């Protein structure tokens, strides 16, 4: 599994919001997570459109989690930034048994990312 910079930044932003427990301005998130500001704005917009965070404009505004951190799995964030992994192409004759191994690996990966929440990581 490859994790893009966008996904790493999105996870960092979500963890910052989970740890804050209240609204954070985009600038605070960008600085605390070393995310380029314009990139951070785009990621926050993507996460908001997906319903993972909410926002309010103004000096008393900012961004916050749309649900409790214990209800947001890492897989939720990864699906927003990476999309669903396409099914691999069929493998040729001798390599065909590998398909089962790759499927098991994807299932294990999906299970781990679906069971691990933002709250789990903040508690570490």
Concise overview:
With 124 residues, this protein is mainly alpha-helical.
Features:
6 helices, 124 residues, elongated, DNA binding, Tscrpt_reg_Rrf2, 2 strands, Arc Repressor Mutant, subunit A, mainly alpha
Question: What does this entry look like structurally?
Answer:
The protein is mainly alpha-helical. It has one domain: Arc Repressor Mutant, subunit A (Orthogonal Bundle). It has helices at about 5-20, 25-35, 35-50, 75-80, 100-115, 120-124, and strands spanning about 55, 60-65. A two-stranded antiparallel sheet has the order 1-2. A hairpin with a 5-residue loop joins β1 (about 55) and β2. α1 (about 5-20) crosses α2, α1 crosses α3 and α2 (about 25-35) packs across α3. The longest helix has 18 residues, at about 100-115.
């Amino acid at each position: 599994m490859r994790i893009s910079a966008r996904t790493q930044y999105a996870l960092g932003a979500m963890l910052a919001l989970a740890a804050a427990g209240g609204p954070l301005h985009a600038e605070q998130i960008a600085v605390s997570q070393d995310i380029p500001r314009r990139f951070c704005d785009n990621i926050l917009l993507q996460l908001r459109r997906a319903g993972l965070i909410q926002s309010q404009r103004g000096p008393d505004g900012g961004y916050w989690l749309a649900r409790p951190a214990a209800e947001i799995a890492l897989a939720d964030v990864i699906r927003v930034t990476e999309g669903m992994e396409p099914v691999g192409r069929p493998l040729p004759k001798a390599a065909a048994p590998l398909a089962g191994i790759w499927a098991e690996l994807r299932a294990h990966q999906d299970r781990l990312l679906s069971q691990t929440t933002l709250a789990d990581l903040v508690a570490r």
